[in-house]
Amino acid sequence: MKLARIEHRRCNEYRATTHVWIPDEMTVEELGKLAHEARNAMLQAEDDLAKAPDAPKNPGWAPAYEKFPNKTAAEIKADHDALVATYKAWEARKNAAKRTFAETLKVTSNGAVRTFYGYADWPGIEVEISWGHRHGQTFDMSPTDPSAKDINAPKPDEEEL
Description:
The protein is an alpha+beta fold. The chain has three helices and four strands, in the order E-E-H-H-H-E-E.
C-alpha cells in the first residue's frame, strides 16, 4: 500500500486534503476516477436526503401491544415492522449523506482504498477534485495531515497492508 493525497476545492478555492492508502499498482487516473465517483456518490446522497421527508418517529424496539386493545398481536407487530422498515430506510439515507469522503471512497473502491490512520512518508501521488458551487451543504472531506505525528493515532494493521 502507498499513501495518496486528494486535494478538495470548492468554488475553485482550496478546502481540505484527504490522505488515503491505495494499492501499490493503482494509477493516478484510477484514483482520480474513484475519487470523482465518491464525490458524486456524496453529492447524490446529500440530494436524496434533502428530498426525503423529515425523520420519521423512531418506532422503538418492540410493539406497544397495550396501546392497541382492538387489534390482534399479529396486526400490531405488522404495523410496528412497517414503521421500523420506514425508519431504517430513512436512517440509511441519513447515514449515506453524512459519511466522510474517505469512507465513501473506501466503499466506492470496494475496499481497495483504505482510510488514513497515522503517519507515513509522502509517496508523491496526488489527485485534485472540485466540489463545485454547493453552498449551504456541509460535506466532511475527511481532512488529514500526514505530517502530524500523532502518538495516539491507530497504527496500521500489518495484515491489512
